Amino acid sequence: MVRASARHILVDSEAQSIELKANIENGEDFAEVAKKHSQCPSKMQGGALGSFGKGQMVKEFEDVVFSSPLNQVQGPVKTQFGYHLIEVTARSE
């Protein structure tokens, strides 16, 4: 079974998501940005969601996690929860 590990930042607006992504791309630490801004309880772990398999996350989120390159911030990705920035940290086939 394919598994992945990822971390994310969840916010209400696409504009905030884009701004935070730019901050990360300009050198801010993903985990620190998550702790300051994410609305998900995972912010306490710097946005880390741990390891999960297909079918455990909402489709829009999962599509990105199982198709994008490792260690590159993806997003904003809109789901029913808001806007996510997603970084896939590991994936096993």
UniProtKB/TrEMBL annotation:
It comes from the Bacteria. Residues 1-90 form the PpiC domain. GO terms for molecular function: isomerase activity. It is found in: Cytoplasm. PANTHER family: PEPTIDYL-PROLYL CIS-TRANS ISOMERASE, RHODANESE-LIKE_PPIC DOMAIN-CONTAINING PROTEIN 12, CHLOROPLASTIC. Belongs to the PpiC/parvulin rotamase family. PPIases accelerate the folding of proteins. It prefers amino acid residues with hydrophobic side chains like leucine and phenylalanine in the P1 position of the peptides substrates. This is Peptidyl-prolyl cis-trans isomerase C.
